[in-house]
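Memo to structure team: turn this sequence into structure tokens by end of day. - J.P.
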Amino acid sequence: MFSFLRRDNSLSNVDKVYGIVVDQSRQPIFYRELLIPDNIDGRFDILSLHMFFIFSRLKNEEQIAADFSQSLFDTMFVDMDQSLREMGVGDLSVGKRVKDMGKALLGRIEAYDKAFSAEYSDIEDALVGPNMFVITYKLAVRIGGEG
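Reply from structure team:
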């Protein structure tokens, strides 16, 4: 089922999966119809949401899935580092920004885990900040066909 996790070519598969996740997170629907800001913060929020779904799906699988998830996480932050440098962020502050983004992703993952678990009846309480609520709510409405 998870043949893409095989060790023999997992690095290239990590890059492929990450590329697919990035492409999906850049779909115009998020920015045009759901009104997510088309800036570094908005793109990071949507990318984080997509990464959450991948990590969530793989978290209870075999060790090779955990290794794949870690490689995917690492690939994301190598990309974040390169992107910040390309945007002109100074070398001395890139490391701190990437570290802050890592903490932000882990915080979002924790919030989404809570939000999608049965223990929370009020999704707004489980999400970090108003932006996460707006994104999740708009996605839920869009998927549910309401609105």
